[in-house]
Design brief:
Layout: H1 2-17, H2 30-45, E1 65-81, E2 84-101, E3 107-122, E4 129-144, E5 148-163, E6 173-186, E7 190-199, E8 211-221, E9 227-240, E10 246-259
Antiparallel strand pairs: 1-2, 1-10, 2-3, 3-4, 4-5, 5-6, 6-7, 7-8, 8-9, 9-10
């Protein structure tokens, strides 16, 4: 009997020592306490990362900021004027584009200049025509997301045409213009761009028609500030001057450029 009592007492003492007293089932054991403390320390040293449900950041905004783009391209023009034979010409054309859309703002300025650099061929070899054009516009970004951008621009277009013997061509003209500009982002490095310029001449010349300038462009970005671009553009207008001389002009061209 004495040995049984001693054996029972030793079991109870062992249970109390390790926190496993059968009469206190809710008391945490020392082993469990050590495990909990270790887990807390690990949680402090290695906090859990936030859930991966956050939206991906927007693509880099390549269309905002200051960009200068010189271009060199090929153009084909056709010119008709009352009383003289028509003139068709192919030539090398130089373009210079300056775009500044203020970062973290919806407003910007767009300047585009082009000039006939070197005539290559003509239906009238005795004549050389050179055409100068410049667009100056203010713009506002209407839609701005990670994959599409829509801007609305308006301003003025200046153009003039000079010919070697002055028997044809048109004087300096200034047209008001307004147009949308659409840009699509592809693969985070490519943008496609389309514009449709509308120029109303009715309040300037009797019997005149509107001028339309359409363009399609693609930019491949090397980094945030540099890109290689290609631009296709066609435009045309018809004007009846008060002297009853009618002028019709049409051109189309493709140019390559580097933006920085």
């Amino acid at each position: 009997m004495v040995f049984a009592i001693i054996f029972f007492a030793s079991l109870v003492g062992t249970g109390i020592l390790y926190g496993q007293n059968p009469h206190a089932p809710d008391a945490p054991s020392l082993i469990e306490g050590n495990s909990s403390d270790s887990a807390d320390k690990n949680a402090e040293q290695h906090p859990r990362s936030p859930a991966s449900t956050e939206a991906d950041p927007a693509l880099p905004d390549y269309t905002h900021g200051l960009h200068l783009t010189p271009r060199l391209g090929y153009e084909n023009t056709l010119y008709n004027q009352t009383g003289v034979p028509s003139l068709g010409q192919t030539a090398l054309r130089g373009n210079l584009d300056l775009n500044w859309f203020i970062p973290r703002s919806s407003f910007g300025v767009d300047l585009r200049v082009n000039y006939t650099l070197l005539p290559l061929g003509s239906t009238r070899p005795e004549l050389t025509a050179r055409i100068f054009g410049a667009h100056l516009d203010l713009g506002y970004t209407v839609v701005n997301s990670s994959f599409i951008k829509v801007k609305l621009l308006g301003g003025a277009y200046y153009t003039s045409m000079t010919v070697t013997d002055q028997i044809l061509g048109y004087p300096a003209l200034i047209f008001p213009e307004i147009y949308p500009d659409l840009s699509l982002y592809l693969f985070n490095k490519i943008t496609l761009n389309a514009t449709y310029r509308f120029m109303y001449l009715g309040s300037i010349f009797d019997g005149s028609q509107t001028q339309l300038v359409r363009s399609l462009g693609m930019n491949i970005f090397i980094n945030h500030n540099h890109s290689i671009s290609a631009l296709f553009e066609d435009n045309g207008f018809s004007i009846l001057f008060p002297s009853l001389i009618q002028v019709q002009y049409y051109s189309m061209g493709l140019s390559l450029g580097y933006s920085f």
